[in-house]
């Protein structure tokens, strides 16, 4: 093994350890929040696509946890930012942690991937660009990824919170 390979492997292990630490800090913070709110939920931690991923799941159907998702995921987005701040406070590093509650983000990701694929198919058949409705940064990222995997390209246009995706012909 060359020296560069060894350091790359060590760097990868350091990144994984750092992301696992972010997940642990986030889990502790979220457990405290659940206790304060008197809500039941289990916390699952993982590392996905070079970022810590923390999920709050419920074995009781998740009705209580829906309060933490809010309308269109607004409360979830706010909790994600608060959790990132809690991680930042402990580590000193900016976190890209993703939070999911009661499977909301996973379901949303599937819906948005389908939307991106349908928009790509429409652009392919008409040859005309397709503009989608305004979306959050997370939503736009999922759509961009779906369009890219369909072999087309897309761009974001507009200003927050009215920023939207435009799917373009090849």
Overview of this protein structure:
The protein has about 170 residues and is α+β, with helices and mostly antiparallel strands. The strands form 2 sheets. It has a 3-stranded mixed β-sheet, with helices on both faces. A 3-stranded antiparallel β-sheet has the order 4-6-5. It is built from 5 helices and 6 strands. The model is unreliable at about 1-5 (pLDDT under 50). Helix 1 packs across helix 3 and helix 4 packs across helix 5 (about 135-150). The chain starts with a helix and ends with a strand.
Outline = globular
Structural class comes to alpha+beta
Return Rg in Å: 19 Å
Span between termini: 42 Å
Q: Helices and strands, in N-to-C order? A: HEEHHEHEHEE
Largest sheet composition: 3 strands, mixed
Largest sheet strand order:
1-2-3
- Low-confidence region ranges: 1-6
Oligomeric state: single chain
- Percentage of β-strand residues: 15-25%
* Helix content, binned percent: 40-55%
- How many helices does DSSP assign? 5
Task: Give the overall pLDDT as a whole number.
Answer: 90
Number of strands: 6
